[in-house]
Amino acid sequence: MGKVPKKRSLADKVRKTKTSTEIKNNPFEVKINRKKFEILGRKTKHDVGLPGVSRSKAINKRKETLLKEYKLKGKCGKFVDRRFGEYDTKMAPEDKILKRFSMERQRGHDKKDLYNLNEEEELTHYGQSLAEMEKFNDIVNSDDDDEPEEKGLLSAELTASHFGGGGLLRKKTSGDQQDGEGHHRAKSRQELIEELIQKSKQEKRERQVRKEEAQELTEKLDLEWKSIQTLMVKKTPRCDHVEEEKPKLEQYDMMVRELGFEMKAQPSEKLKTPEELAREEREKLHQLESDRLRRMMGDEGGESSQSQIHISADDIHDGFILDKDDKKTLSYQDGKWNVEEESEKDNDEEDDEKEGQSGEEEESEAEVEGEEDGDDEEEEEEEEDEEETSAKPSLSKEEMKAQQEAAKAELPYTFTAPETYDDLKDLLHGHTPDNQRLIVARTQKSNHASLAVGNKLRLQKLFGFLLEYIGELATRSPPELATTDKLIPELYSMCQMFPEAACKTMQSIFGDAGHSSEEVLEVKGHIAFPTLDMLIYLKVTALLFPTSDFRHPVTTPALLYISQALTKCPVRSLQDVTSGLVLCCLGVEYVTFSKRFLPELINFLSGTLHLAVRDKTSIGYTVVPPFRPSGKCSDLLVLSDSESCKSWSKKSLPLSVTQHLELRSDLDRDHHRLMCLSTCLDLVKRCCLLYKDLTSFACIFQPITTLLSKHLSAQTLPELLQELHSEILESIGGAPVTRCRLVLERKKPIPLKLLTPKIVEVLDYGKKRGSTREEREKERLKHKYKKEFKGALREIRKDTRFLAREKLSEVMNRDSERKRKVRELFGSLATQEGEWKALKRRKKK
Q1: Where is the composition biased (Basic and acidic residues) (predicted)?
Q2: What is the pLDDT of residues 147-163, one digit of tens each?
Q3: pLDDT digits 0-9 by tens, 813-828
C-alpha cells in the first residue's frame, strides 16, 4: 500500500503563495490554537489559522458583492414590460385590447383631462341642448294680454324706415317680389310710412272689438249666474241649526287638540358659575341698598324716571301680543275634512274659557301661596320695595315722612366684613336672632371670595369671630340659644367654602381646652365638667364635620375630649350628672354612623344608673371612676319621696341646666332626678341597638343587666321608665351569643425535612446520544441549524459594520471635498480683496 497523502490545510495554501515569506517571517500573522490535552486517534482541524488573510479575503469578497449592490441601489438600467396581460396565456387578445384601452382612457381621465370638457359629449340643461339654447331663438312674450304677441318686435320695414340700411335691411313682400321680377321698382319712404300707420290702426281696431265682445260675454254670464245661484244654496232654519248635534270627535282628533295646548319647550338659561352668581347677588344687594337710601332721603327721582317710558316719534305701536288663537279645529268625519267655523263653537268656547279661567285662577292662587311659603325674608323685603316703588309718584309730606322712617328702620343690604371681634359685636348688637342671621348672610354675599382679593381672608376671620360670638352667647345668663340656632346655617355655609380654615379654628379651640384641662388636672387632680360654650362647640363640630371617618383632624380630637371628660370629671351634684348626660348624648351622636365602641360612654351610663340604687351593700357589678360604690355623692338620683313619680311627666333635658340649675323644693329635685334617669335609660336603649352586632355585647352590658334586674326594680319607677326598663332587658337578653370556647387547632403535624440525597441514574456519558436513529438525526439537524444560525448572525454583523465604514468614508470624502472648495473660495476672495485694497492705496497716492 502506498502512503496516504496528507491533507493540506489553509495555512499550507497560504504559505505557497507569494506572501508566504512575509507570513513566515511575521509571527503575528499566524494564530496557533492550542489544545488542553492530546487525544489519540482524533483528527484535529484548524490547529493553525491566519486571521489576517481570512479578513482580507472577506473584505475583498464584500467589495465585489455587497459594495457593488450598495452602489447600484436605486439605479435601474433595464426595460420592464408592463403591458397588461402580455404574459397571461389565459386571456384572449380581444380582452387584452379592451382592458388596455379602458385603462388608458381611465388614466387619461384621472390625470390629464380632469378639468377638460369632452367635445364629443352633448351638454344639456333640463333636457335641452346648451348648443341650441345659446342661439337665442326663443321669442319673448309680452306680459300684457291686451296687446298683440308681436308687440315689442322690430319689423324689417320699421327698421329700414327709421334706421336706413339700404336694400339689405328691407324685407321684401310678395307683391314686391312679383314687381321685382317684372319691373324691379322699390317703394319710397313715404309709402312705407303710410303703410305702417295703416297697419297699426287696423290692429288697434281689432283689439278694441275683441275687448268689447269679451266684456259683453262676461256681463251676460254674471246675469245668468245670479238667476241660478238661489237654486244651488239651501238655507237651514235657525231652530234646526240649534237642534242639530255636533259630531263627536274621535280619539285621534282629541289628541291633536291636546297637542295644540301642550306647553312648548322654552330655552333655558345657561348654568352660571359660583363667581357669576356671587357677582349678581352683590349687585342685587347694592341696588336694594341704593333704593333704601333714596327712600330714606325722600328722593322721588328714581321712581319718576322708572315710571316714564320714552316713546319715539317713529314708533308704530306694533309691540302687542296676540292673545287670541286664530287656529281652526281640523277633524276628519264621514271621509271628508271638517273645518269647524267659529260661529258654530262660540257657546262651547265661552264655557271652556270660563272653566279654564276658573282653573287658571285656582292654579295661580296655589302657585302664589307656594311662592309665599317658600320665599325668604330678603325676597319679601324686595317685594315690599317693588310695591313701594310702583306706588304713586306724588306723595304727601306725611306719607313721605312715614316712608323715610320705614326706610331708616330697615336693615342695610350691604355690610363690610368686620376686621375685629368687637366690630362683629357692634354690628349684631341690638338685633333679633333673625336679623342677626340676615346680617351675617348679607355680609357673606357682599364680601364673596371671588369678588375681591382680600375677601377670602376676611370671611375666614368672620368664621372665627362667629364661633367666638356663639361661645359668648352661651356664657350669658340666660344663654341665648335661639340666636345660636339661627347662626349655625351661616357657619355651615362658610365651613363649606373654607374647610381648611374652619378645621384649623376648631382644632385651636379643642387644643386650648385640652391644655387648660391638663394643667388643672396636674394641680388639683380632677377637673370640672365642660361649660355650656364647650358643649355647644362639640355640637357644632358634629354638624359641620363628618363623624363617621376612622380618623378626622377635628372630630377625632372632639371625641377624645368627650372621653376624657367622662373619665376625669367627678360627679358631685345634679348639675354634674346633667352635664355628663349631655356629653353622653353627644358621644352617641358621634358614633351613630360609624358604630364605634366607646367604653367611657357605657361606664358613665352604668355609673349614672348606680346613683339611683338605694341599697348599695351587696352589688354584683363593679363601679368605675369617676363614680364611687358608696359615699357622699353616690345617692344623687335616689328619690326623696316615692309619691313624686305620680306627678312627674317626661320632658326633654334643656342645655341651660348645665350652666345654672335652680331646684327650690324636694319635688323639683325628684322630678329632675327622674328626668335624668329617663335620659340615661333612653341612652342605654340606643347603645343596645347600636352595639348589638358586637360579639362581646353580652359581656359589655352585663353590669347594666345586673343593676336593672336586681338592684333597680321597675316597680318604684313611673310607667314610661318601666317600659324603657323592660325594653332594655329584652334587647340585652334576646341578643344571640356568638362566642365559642377556645380550642387548639387540630391538624396533622408538619414532618421535618429529610436530608436523604436524591440519586439520579445517568446512562449517557460524553456526547448526547439518542436511543433511535431518528432521534440522533434530529439532534444532528438541531446542532447544524444552531451553528448555521450563529454563523449567519455573525456574517450579518460583519456586513453591517462594512457598510457603516463605507458610508462613513463617503461622508468624510464629501466633507473634505466641501472643505477644499470652501478654502479655494476663501482664497480667491482674499486675493480679490488684497488686489482691491492695493488698487485703493495706489489711487490715494
Answers
A1: 180-189, 263-298
A2: 444 445 555 555 555 55
A3: 999 999 999 999 999 9
Burial (Cβ within 10 Å: 0-12, 13-18, ≥19) of residue 513: buried
Closest Cα partner for 537 from 567, 565, 497? 565
Q: What is the distance, to the nearest Å, from the Cα of residue 740 to the centroid of all Cα atoms in its chain? A: 53
Supply the mean pLDDT for the chain: 77
What is the C-alpha separation between 173 and 187, in angstroms, rounded?
11
What is the CA angle 823-826-832, rounded to 5? 140
Which residue type, as a one-letter code, is found at position 729? L
This prediction's pTM: 0.49
- What is the Cα–Cα distance from 512 to 529, expressed in whole angstroms? 15
8 A C-beta contact, residue 340 and residue 331: yes
Residue 137 is given by DSSP the state: -
Say if CB 404 and CB 297 are below 8 A apart: yes
Residue 3: φ, ψ to 5°: -80, 135
Cis omega (within 30 of 0) for bond into 530: no
Q: Label residue 327 by pLDDT band (50, 70, 90).
A: very low
State the burial class of residue 698 (Cβ atoms within 10 Å of its Cβ: 0-12, 13-18, 19+). middle
Q: How far apart are CA 41 and CA 462, in angstroms?
A: 106
Separation in Å, CA 249 to CA 246, 253, 331, 349: 9, 6, 7, 15
Q: How many residues in total does the chain contain?
A: 845
Task: State how far the Cα of 695 lies from the Cα of 673, in Å rounded to an integer.
Answer: 34
Cell numbers that stand for 586 in this block: 353627644
Distance in angstroms between the alpha carbons of the first and the last residue of the chain: 108
- Per-residue pLDDT for 306 more than 90? no
**Nearest by Cα to 640 from 704, 716, 570:** 716
